Amino acid sequence: QVQLVESGGGLVQAGGSLRLSCGASGRTFSSYPMGWFRRAPGKAREFVASISSSGSSTNYADSVKGRFTISRDNAKNTVYLQMNSLKPEDTSVYYCAARRIGSLEYNYWGQGTQVTVSS
Questions:
Q1: Dmax of the chain from CA atoms?
Q2: How far is CA 64 from the centre of its chain?
Q3: Is the pLDDT of residue 27 over 90?
Q4: How far apart are alpha carbons 110 and 98 in whole angstroms?
Q5: 58-60 and 46-51: which strand pairing?
Q6: Which of 5, 78, 109, 119 is the most exposed place for a label (fewest CB within 10 A)?
Q7: Long-range pairs of 101-108 with CB within 8 A, sequence gap ≥ 24
Q8: Residue in 36, 11, 35, 17 with CA at minimum distance from that of residue 99
């Protein structure tokens, strides 16, 4: 079992930056691929970014490519999402998630952190 806790959300003006953090419990964090997702009001949850267990491979949604960066520190059991050049359409609740090796879906989810970008 993995417990995930996001932090770092808040209110920022368009063009600004935020860094989200997701802390994980357990000693097996380094074995889990991790992802960030978001859900805007009235919309379905959408994929934002993912990172392999070692951190050597990343993937991004087209809407955030070039602006967001996912990274992880396995020694600190933490995954990050650096968000630059924020736009009002980035306003969402952001969730981190962990995927067990071999699983086709994400198995563990955090409670989410609100990001609001004002125009």
A1: 42
A2: 12
A3: no
A4: 9
A5: antiparallel
A6: 119
A7: 101/31, 101/32, 101/33, 101/53, 106/35, 106/37, 107/2, 108/1, 108/2, 108/3, 108/4, 108/32
A8: 35
Query: Residue 97, SS3?
Result: strand
What CA–CA distance (Å, rounded) separates 73 from 89? 28
**Structure letter (DSSP) for residue 119:** -
Strand partners, 20: 81
pLDDT in tens, 56-80: 999 999 999 999 999 999 999 999 9
Q: Hey, what are 34's tokens?
A: 């991790």
Query: 60 pairs with which residues across the strands?
Result: 49
